[in-house]
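Appendix B. Extra example for self-study. Work through it before the problem class; the solution is given directly after the inputs so you can check yourself.
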Amino acid sequence: MRLPWQMLSRTNSVGQDAEPAPVNSPGHDDPRITEGAGAQVSRGANTQLSWAARTDVGLVRGHNEDSFLAQAPTFAVSDGMGGHAAGEVASAIAVATISEHAPVHADDLLLGASVEMANAAVINGAETGQGKPGMGCTASVVSIEQNKMAVAHVGDSRVYLLHNGALVRLTHDHSYVEELVDAGEITADEARVHPSRSVITRALGSDPDMYADHFTIDVSAGDRVLLCSDGLSSMIEDSQIEAIAVSSATPQAAVDNLVAAALQEGGHDNVTVVVVDVTDDGVIEQHRRRYLLRFFTVGLIIMGICAALFVAATLFVRNSWYVGANGDTVAIYHGVNASLLGHDLYALSETTTVQLDDLPDALQSSLRDGVVVSSEAEAHATIESYRDQIQTDKVHAQQVADKSTAGTETSQEKPAVPKSESEGEDDEADEGGE
Ligand code: MG
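Solution. Structure tokens for the complete assembly:
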């Protein structure tokens, strides 16, 4: 059955009968609830966060209906309502359920779902006799993961963010006076002292279809996150919260000073404050990982290129042939006529009887540098062409030699011309010339 939260008052007068120990009291065997009713504190730290929490019954109420959760990366404040043996049960059920179902990562949708599960658990608790019918509570929850913070929220507890010295309220109160403020009918300061300031319009414990506001924002190293019940925000102004949050050196000092300030103003309500400092948002680590990833990626690419070039060069060398000099003879080589890092890129494949001296000088010079051929077969063909050339040259030289010899013999066999005729002709020629 849906309860009219608009009509629910969280007043709880002083002087009630002795109270049974709340389910989230110190010593309770549920370790997920780090602290509970009364004046209790909790603090802790990990590599990215440092936190502290304090809840105090205040100076007017007889018992503490607030609960909180400080279980990194999840932090929550829940303000119970419903009176004695009800409000504290509702808030304890809520934080226990949220603790169990909150996502590991900063996922605001799942965080909101955990609040909605808490709503079902509170409703079920009332129906099964745990607590009392009509009990309910608020829930303001954050989950911080590196530079992301998921927020889920129902009711008039609050989440603030202190960034660069300025305090910003992240949540919107689900309360009657907040609606009046939104409508421009009263100011925020007037809302704090309005007689209907305790009337809330959305809470856990009545409507099975209740939904949670949820969103995700960026946070950075140096930010301070503050969660509180209305026992703080209704007692001191946001400007005072900001001043104390800025001036407090540690989360522990911040929660102590904030609770003290609420008590100093009268402590009319239970007051609960959770402060979380973001000491490392993981951005530097992300940059380091990105740099390493880029470094290794570039390295792998360069190694891949080098490997491809090596394979290509190896294939090229293995498929290369040339004809070159091997001492005084011509030989066939496998590879290329070069060296790399002291290693020859060629190997002697076959020697021949072709003498370098039998070849033209220009060809001898080319052979000393290596005459590249396309295949071993072409190398053999080239060698044969050299043999043919040498043979041709030898034949030609022999023919020249034979002609020379024949010319000499012909000259020796030519008949002698009579000297008188010869002389006569010479004389006539001489006379004609003169
Ligand atoms: Mg309260």
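Self-check: The pocket of magnesium ion is lined by residues 10, 79, 229-231, 269-270 (CB under 6 Å). If your reasoning did not lead you there, revisit section 3.
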